[in-house]
Amino acid sequence: MPHDQDISNDANRYFLYAIGVDIDLDAQLDASRTLLERHRAADVELTERIKRLEERAHGTTGRASELAVDEWLDSIQRSIYQDAAHSLAAVGMLAPLLEIILVHSFAALRTHFALCVSGPRAWPSRRRNVGIATGRSTNMASGRRISLGAPCN
Fold it and tell me: Phi and psi at residue 123, in whole multiples of 5°?
């Protein structure tokens, strides 16, 4: 990946630090990048091997050609499974990283804005009664309280 498109140099990374997400994104991204580069090198090596086997299969005749074609086809099939394994490994690395970023971001935003929500529902309905004097909002449908600016318990 060219460094001008490097996600670790993106302004979004600094936004995460600004809201208080305290994880080492550079280390996480470097580890992911290293593994992806190893996978890419293995893919290139297997592709070159497949090309060499194809040339050998076309350059032989008789039983030797049949064996070379079988080996060539086995390598093609192996490349399909290798591609799938590499894709799963990439998702397996990136999904937890994204989960950590989201969990830490929401926790930091909650602390930053001191938004406390209590009650059974995750989101308030559109019908709310806002108390002017208290600065609290009560969801009319469920009676759930939303506190802005109050400490979260």
Answer: -130, 140
